[in-house]
Amino acid sequence: MEAKDAAAERAETFVAVEGAVEEDVPGGTLLLAAYGALWLVLMLYMVRLLRLHRGLSTRVQDLRRELGES
Amino acid sequence: MARIDLARTPPLLSALAWACVLLSPLALYSAFVYAPSEARMGIVYRIFYFHMPCAQAMYVGFGVCAAASVLYLMKRDPRFDAIAVAGAELGMVFWTVTMILGPLWGRKSWGVYWVWDPRLTSTLLAGMVYVSYLVLRSSRHIGEVERRFAAGLGIVGALTIPLIKYSVQRWRGTHPTVISGEGGGLQGEMWHALIVCLVLVTLLCAALIWIRARFERTRQQVEELELIAAERGLLEEG
């Protein structure tokens, strides 16, 4: 009989654990990572909007100055 | 001559921003404290309270981009072009959040970050279309032909929205269907928390689209004025 890979083994056989079960995927860490990412993306976009605003204000001021001087 | 005033904020936009500020703590309380943990997934399912509203906000952004693109092609009014750019950009912001939050939930639920599920794949496709749109719009001085081509891309991209929405029902993937499916759905407190988060994220999306559209319109007006001034020889060289 050929040796089965882990996925095939898992699909065909359920093995009972002995003692306390330890979760291998930490839900709390994933939750924290998710909310951290949410805030990070939104904050980065706010920074982009602020930079855009500053850039536009500078261009408007430059335009006003140059048109005012000429 | 166009009047440029970035300092004056429309009262409705201020009201939207204040509503977001006031709703934020309520949404966080609803998602983390008020809503009970899910029996099989534990606390990680709470990602859903911002994942699903962000996906809806992505639809809003792409939908606004498509609608404004249609109006731009019909009327050639640059204000619609500015709204289309804002819609595409905010759609991509919420697409990014959706595509980060979803796989983090999937890691716990499916054991892997990514599966080639119909909804995930069609969402990825929509993102690629709008990335192309934003790349096309990223150059500083674009002409009418590029604007019209981008409008077409904005409309084509929105055709993926029904594909995303109904792919789960049509091709039955592994993506959850607690809202649209025929299963037990959500329990009372879970619905309340979801509605609060949905309202918050939708208002935030609307406010950000409005702000971004104002900036884009201002940029268009500044460019028009710079062009007129340059043609009349009123600007300094360089």
Key descriptive features of the protein:
heterodimer, A: 70 residues, mainly alpha, 2 helices, 71% helix, B: 238 residues, 74% helix, globular
Beta-strand content estimate of chain B: under 5%
Q: How many structural domains of chain B?
A: 1
Shape of chain A: rod-shaped
Radius of gyration of CA atoms of chain A, rounded to a whole number: 29 Å
- SS field, number of helical segments of chain A: 2
Counting helices, strands and paired strands, the structural category of chain A is mainly alpha
What is the strand and helix layout of this fold?
The complex is a heterodimer of chains A (70) and B (238).
Chain A: H1 6-12, H2 27-69
Chain B: H1 11-34, H2 48-75, H3 78-109, H4 118-137, H5 144-158, H6 160-171, H7 188-231
Helix pairs in contact in B: 1-7, 2-3, 2-5, 2-7, 3-4, 3-7, 4-5, 4-6
Give a written overview of the molecule.
The complex is a heterodimer of chains A (70) and B (238). With 70 residues, chain A is an all-alpha fold. In chain A, 71% of the residues lie in helices and 0% in strands. Chain A is rod-shaped. The model of chain A has no long low-confidence stretch (mean pLDDT 80). Chain B has one domain (43-171, 187-237). Chain B has 7 helices and no strands. The mean pLDDT of chain B is 88. The A-B interface holds A 25, 27-28, 30-31, 33-35, 37-38, 41-42, 45, 49, 52-53, 56-57, 59-60, 63, 66-67, 70 and B 4, 6, 41-44, 46-47, 50-51, 54, 93, 96-97, 100-101, 104-105, 107-108, 111, 208, 211-212, 215, 218-219, 222, 225-226, 229, 234-236.
